[in-house]
Structures are given as C-alpha cells and as structure tokens.
C-alpha cells in the first residue's frame, strides 16, 4: 500500500472523529460560558393567573395566547422568535405573557424571559421606591407623584408577576397613597381608583378594608358606575349573592351608563 493511500485512509477515518470532538467541545463551551444561571427569586413560575381586575388590551391578550400556544406545542423556533419580538417592544404591559415563557422546556426561551423580567421588575422596584419616598417627604402632598406611583403599581401588579408576599406589599403601598390623597382632598381620587383598591384588597383577602373603600366611594362619588362596581366586586368576593343581585338590580334601574365589563356581568347573572 502506497504512502499516499495510507495518508488518505487516515484522513477519511479522522473526519468523523474530528466532527464528534468539535460538537462535544462546542456543547461544553456553550454550557460553561453561555448558560449562566439567572436570578429568578423574584419571578413567579406558576402558570396560575389571578382574575383580571380589568380587561387587558387586545395586543397584550394576543401576546399571551401566542406564547401559550408556542409553549404548548414545543415549537422552540417560534418561541424564541416570539420572545424576541416582545422584548423589542415596551414590555411593561407584557410581563404576564412573558411569564408563560418561563415554563418553556427550551432553556434559551426561558432564559430570555427570565432576564427580561428580572430587568423590568428591578426597574419597577427602583421607580416605586423613589416615588414613594418623594410622596412621604412632600409637604404639601405631591399629587403628581401620587398619580404616577399608583398607575405604575396598577399596571404591574395587575399582571400578577410577583410572589404573594410582594404582591401584598404593593397593594398596601397603593392603599397608603390613596389614603393620603383622600385625607388631603377626596376630590383628588379618580373614580376608577376606588375600583382598583377594592379589587386588590379583595384579591389579597382583606374584605373589611375593601368595604371601607366601598363606603368612601359611595360617599364621595355617589351615584356613579364606579361606586356600584366597588360594591359588586365586594359582594361577589364575599359570596353574598343577595346583596350582589340587589346592587345589580339598582344599577339596572338607574340612568347610569355602563361599560362593557358591567354589561357582561348583567348578561351572566340575568
């Protein structure tokens, strides 16, 4: 056998071994240097969602459905593409949909989701702390900071991305700010603020405090839709069917214009 033939034979035999070694080294380097663990201690992994207090916008709902479908069918390519499309946008109102991607079996998709949530929730904590401190230090009360803070809290915690203990802390922060505004001047509270705090207090299991805000809404804004919705939310949470139906009947007989959410309640319980 000639020397050229021997060299060619060795090359042919070496090619498969070289390929195997290359892929093995690539896999090892990828695990060591590109799969660093992300701190997910502040992220909820459960797919369970709380009842939406108000309807989300259509774009957010489409994002949630798309992520759920992608995760369900294990389409890793679509999952990654969808996650990147969401992350490129303003993700403040898409945190709930991103949370679903944490359940993906594709480590790259779950890594993208966890990193996005970590950064966004970190920014949220910093912003709320600064605004809260501004409100506590302001004399007279800084109403602009109050409105900015409660809207920031509502937009985030309504997506249920925190653990229960932290969720509660932000509900109580919102309640404290609303109390300061109420004591400063009840007219500074917008109608839907009463709905927000009643709904959140009921969701964390504090019906007595929620009822206090129902009474305040009735006293300050009177015969308006928000005051009825506060009582409806309270009676529903307390499983008080008699007062729930009574309040709904009173609202039906009134001349108050109702929104789509209330119309759905009428259809469901009529």
Could you explain the architecture of this structure?
The protein is mainly alpha-helical. Among the domains are: 1-35; 117-269, Serine Threonine Protein Phosphatase 5, Tetratricopeptide repeat, CATH 1.25.40. 73% of the residues lie in helices and 0% in strands. Helix 5 (107-137) runs antiparallel to helix 6 and helix 9 packs antiparallel against helix 10 (225-237). The radius of gyration is 27 Å and the shape is elongated. The protein starts with a helix and ends with a helix. Residues 38-65 have low confidence and may be disordered.
CATH topology of the domain at 117-269: Serine Threonine Protein Phosphatase 5, Tetratricopeptide repeat
Number of helices: 12
> Which oligomerization state do the chains in this entry correspond to?
single chain
**Secondary-structure element sequence?**
HHHHHHHHHHHH
Number of strands: 0
Uncertain segments are 38-65
Alpha-beta classification: mainly alpha
How much is the average pLDDT? 78
Q: In CATH, what is the class of the domain at 117-269?
A: Mainly Alpha
Estimated share of beta-strand residues: under 5%
Alpha carbon gyration radius = 27 Å
Shape descriptor reads elongated
Major sheet attributes: none
Give the distance, in angstroms, between the N- and C-terminal Cα atoms. 95 Å
Helix fraction by DSSP (H/I, runs of at least 4)? over 70%
CATH architecture of the domain at 117-269: Alpha Horseshoe
């Amino acid at each position: 056998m000639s020397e050229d033939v021997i060299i060619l034979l060795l090359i042919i035999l070496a090619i498969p071994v070289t390929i195997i070694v290359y892929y093995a080294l690539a896999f090892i380097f990828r695990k060591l240097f590109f799969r660093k663990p992300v701190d997910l201690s502040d992220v909820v992994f459960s797919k369970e969602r709380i009842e939406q207090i108000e309807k989300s916008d259509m774009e957010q709902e489409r994002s949630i459905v798309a992520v759920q479908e992608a995760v369900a069918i294990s389409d890793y390519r679509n999952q990654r593409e969808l996650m990147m499309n969401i992350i490129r946008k303003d993700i403040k109102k898409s945190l709930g949909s991103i949370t679903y991607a944490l359940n993906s079996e594709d480590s790259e998709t779950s890594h993208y989701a966890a990193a996005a949530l970590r950064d966004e929730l970190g920014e949220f904590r910093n912003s709320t702390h600064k605004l809260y401190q501004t409100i506590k230090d302001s004399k007279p009360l800084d109403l602009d900071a109050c409105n900015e803070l409660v809207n920031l809290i509502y937009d985030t915690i309504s997506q249920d991305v925190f653990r229960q203990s932290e969720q509660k802390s932000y509900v109580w922060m919102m309640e404290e700010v609303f109390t300061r505004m109420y004591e400063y001047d009840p007219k500074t509270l917008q109608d839907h603020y009463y709905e927000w705090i009643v709904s959140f207090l009921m969701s964390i299991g504090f019906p007595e405090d929620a009822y206090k805000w129902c009474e305040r809404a009735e006293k300050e804004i009177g015969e308006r839709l928000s005051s009825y919705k506060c009582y409806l939310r309270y009676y529903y949470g307390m499983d008080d069917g008699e007062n729930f139906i009574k309040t709904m009947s009173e609202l039906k007989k009134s001349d108050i214009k109702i929104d789509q959410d209330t119309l759905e309640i009428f259809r469901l319980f009529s």
